[in-house]
């Protein structure tokens, strides 16, 4: 009888909560929060699985297992593997580019560059799978995100390069190739994710320790400042 009473008071919401039970009167806000939580779990799991196996090698079953959610939930939220893959890549690119908001005409050049490099390094340390996944996509010829690179990325790089050009014109930054500046920063920061194993092997130390990360960040910052002619 108790079990029957419980089943009347609660209802399963597998399609929106990964098998979690919600009160029958759960409001839309609660459902929305659970959906957001589940989507975040799925995206993080997909990021890791795609980074390891690539788009072709990864399966929805592997991602579901990594997310500890039913495979049906992945299809409910994202439809198919390609849509999930594109969503992951789009999120990575967004997270990479968001720190560029600090590149504004009225910003202090050194402070803006310092903050951007630190955030890029933090991203490489904390989400290495994201960087590796994106690198693998590029090495394959960017079949899934080529249009995104030619549109959103190109537009934003041109916009932020123009900010650097403005700083140069005002004498606040020494002359440099402002577009290739971004390529240099990306290569210096993302190598700590893409080649983490190599770095750890050469250093012979825990490359994930706070001390090792601080050392690497100082080196990259100093290198970028020299590249920009900033002391």
Give the domain tally: 2
- Rg, rounded, reads 22 Å
Please report the number of helical segments.
12
Fraction of residues in helices?
A: over 70%
List low-confidence stretches: 1-24
| Total count of strands | 2
Shape: globular
Spatially, the strands of the biggest sheet line up as: 1-2
Provide the CATH top-level class of the largest domain: Mainly Alpha
Class from secondary-structure proportions: mainly alpha
CATH architecture identity of the largest domain: Orthogonal Bundle
What does this entry look like structurally?
InterPro entries: Homeodomain-like_sf, HTH-type_TetR-like_transc_reg, HTH_TetR, Tet_transcr_reg_TetR-rel_C_sf, Tscrpt_reg_YcdC_C. Residues 36-96 form the HTH tetR-type domain. One of its GO terms (biological process) is negative regulation of DNA-templated transcription. This is Transcriptional regulator RutR of pyrimidine catabolism (TetR family). This protein has 231 residues and is an all-alpha fold. The protein folds into two domains: 2-79, Homeodomain-like (Arc Repressor Mutant, subunit A), CATH 1.10.10.60; 91-227, Tetracycline Repressor, domain 2. Helix content is 74%, strand content 3%. It has helices at residues 2-9, 14-17, 28-57, 60-67, 71-78, 81-97, 109-126, 128-139, 146-169, 178-194, 196-203, 210-227; strands at 10-12, 21-23. Strands 1-2 form a two-stranded antiparallel sheet. It is globular. The model is unreliable at 1-24 (pLDDT under 50).
